[in-house]
Amino acid sequence: MSILELSVKELRKKITNKEISVPEVVKAQLAHIEKTNPLYNAYHDINKNALLRAETVQKEIEAGTLDSAFAGVPVAVKDNICTTEMTTTCGSKMLTGFHSPYNATVVKRLQKAGAVIMGKANMDEFAMGSTSETCYYGAVKNPWNPEHVSGGSSGGSAVAVASYGAFASLGSDTGGSIRQPAAYCNMTGVKPTYGSVSRFGLVAYGSSLDQIGPIAHNIEDAAAMLAIISGYDDQDSTSLKQGPFDFNDCLKEDLEGKKIGIPVNYLGEGIDPEIKAAIYEAAKKLSELGAECEEFILPMVDYAVPAYYIIASAEASSNLSRFDGIKYGYHPKKFTDLEDLYLTARSEGFGMEVKRRIMLGTFALSSGYYDAYYQKALKVKALIKQAFDGAFAKYDTILSPVAPTVAPKLGESLNNLLQMYLSDIYTVSVNLAGIPAVSLPCGFNKENLPIGMQFLGQALSEKTLVQLAYAYQSITEHHHKKPQLEVL
Amino acid sequence: MNIDAKMVDYVAELAKLRLSEEEKLRMGEDLNNILVYMDILNELDTENVQAMTHVFDVNNVFRADEIKASYPREEILKNALAVEDGCFVVPKTVE
Prior knowledge:
The complex is a heterodimer.
Chain A: H1 8-16, H2 22-40, E1 43-46, H3 50-63, E2 74-78, H4 105-112, E3 116-121, E4 141-142, E5 145-149, H5 155-162, E6 168-173, H6 179-184, E7 188-191, E8 211-216, H7 219-229, E9 259-263, H8 273-288, E10 292-296, H9 304-319, H10 338-349, H11 352-365, H12 370-394, E11 397-401, H13 417-422, H14 428-433, E12 437-444, E13 450-456, H15 462-474
Parallel strand pairs in A: 2-3, 2-6, 9-10, 9-11
Antiparallel strand pairs in A: 1-3, 4-5, 6-8, 7-8, 7-12, 11-13, 12-13
Chain B: H1 5-14, H2 21-38, H3 73-77, E1 83-84, E2 87-88
Antiparallel strand pairs in B: 1-2
């Protein structure tokens, strides 16, 4: 087995035992990325200073000044998270060549922990999409079958790890953008409680919904990464005043006394029967671990997607108004006056899906329609939150599918927009309610494409969710299965 | 709600987007499809529901009024369209 296929924990052990040095790992990582990236397109920009950085980290480890769960570990960072090294493009022509003047808080924390950032991961343009096909720099391909999508919007982050181009990565989740590509690529991903991870340096899409989170091969690695990036940050005014998560005492293989609710109305019409079967099979495994599974009806399911798209688009239309062609971003070569500069920059810089959501959001916020759409959606959001509160009064977690299908073929989704939006049905309500969720592998379909499931919990129940995922992964093998990579 | 050509023009103007004739047609069609689907929200009686902007209780966040170093000016200006005397240059806005 190649060292690149080790878990973060295993790699750390080898580095600590001096079986391998950080520069050796990073050299092997760079050589592998060079071979795999032309096909899978996980990375947009590769870190030219990665080897230099690896040497520094190695010295610090040897000097005894650096000892963390990620010291010397190669990671990928989604391209909407600001880094001073490499460009930050959000998968858009609008930000081609943009160099951030600062690092995002999560990047600073990872660097302090000794992680080596290998590159910036491709994504749907401005995180708007569920397939990573709206990326201006080309679609990201699924390592399990490159004719299928990676999922999105954090497709590059999921594929970077799934194709062994990084040991873990950072994604962002506004309506499922960490969990769904993780499910499509057999990865484990966490969407943390709103406010538990700083958004400083994350290019905003839907500010009330966005959260940064980890993607890794297993929950232990993902939890270790989340522990590093979480905790209060005075540069994010929505940051919760609490310390970083500590998951050390919840890596237990026992689920005695845990109550799990399975929403039957998530498993009715519209879901792939193989996914439904995998969810029930997982419930059986969880019962073997001592958990008590019970079916129930989760109210408001059908209203989550429309409420989400109104709120997310409204916030996007406001957030993306900063792209004016002046301070940063795409500068048109020719323009006649200020108005023409704005119009030309935005019309040539944004792709069609971004324009569509800006239009939808602008409409929902416009005079005469604000109450009927935006206010209405905010009221529905309150009802969705209530529905979850009711469920979590009875259950420690909700066990749910991540998506109604496995990864679709490239090109299939963008032809049917409404269908693509509806495929977010199991993920968006989590963001509306601000609660955490863990997405993890639970099987494969007949065509050997991964199936994912998710544990949803009440706000700040990350430790419970990590324990559930850890216990499940301790008695299952799905997350160990490896794709047959096609390399040059 | 029906989005007609006039509405597409109006919203595009608000959003500072210039759409081609082809894009306008597609945009009108797409928005109509999406909004028809969104009408499902009208099934819900929300008369007595308080709109929720924040999921957690939030308070105004203030910081102490301390003087701190900001980012270097040249760093902030390095991505600009045009720079002169340490400032962003924009086309003339006032006649």
